[in-house]
Amino acid sequence: MIEDLHLRHHSADEAKRVLDQLVDLYLEVYPDDGEFHSEDRYRRQLDLHMQRAGWEMVTATINEALVGYIYGFPLPPQTRWWEGIHEPAPPGFTDENGTRTFALSELLVHPAWRRQGIAAALHDALVLSRPERRTTLLVRSDNDVAQRAYEAWGWSKVTKLQPHWEGAPIFDVLVRTSVDVD
């Protein structure tokens, strides 16, 4: 692990103070990657996600420079998260009550700082601190690096999902169950 790495949990109000830095890093991670990864769409996504009850983010800084972050939120009972899910999905898989599932929305690390344990540190700082019974995320099936990392961190593929957003790709739906669940 990097000696000067500092991880910090943020509420939505705290994260709004560094919003431009979050967007700038996102654009460095996804340069020229089409409308789906545009600044305008990502700012709208962040704004909507930050309004979710229980939204939480962990940032990684080195010498006060933002090098990565992860964020997510609990899925409410009437969530739209599962819209576009492909079958088969296990019975009751998409049933939510507001405390069952934490949705991990973004995990990114600046390209210059990858393969140094930062993503794993961010992942563990957020995911392992959550009280929900399970965590879910969407990852592109062609993102081999992310797929291998999530598998190593205990995630399992359940099915596929294509969100109803303009230009959205088809994602693999991954789930990680909390180790404290009876």
From TrEMBL:
Keywords annotated in UniProt: Transferase
InterPro entries referenced in this protein's UniProt entry, alphabetically: Acyl_CoA_acyltransferase, GNAT_dom
Highest taxon of the lineage: Bacteria
Keyword Transferase: yes
UniProt keyword annotation of Kinase present: no
Entry's Gene Ontology molecular function annotations: acyltransferase activity, transferring groups other than amino-acyl groups
Coiled-coil parts of chain: none
Alphabetical list of Pfam families matching this protein: Acetyltransf_1 (PF00583)
Residues annotated as domain N-acetyltransferase: 7-180
Protein name: GNAT family N-acetyltransferase
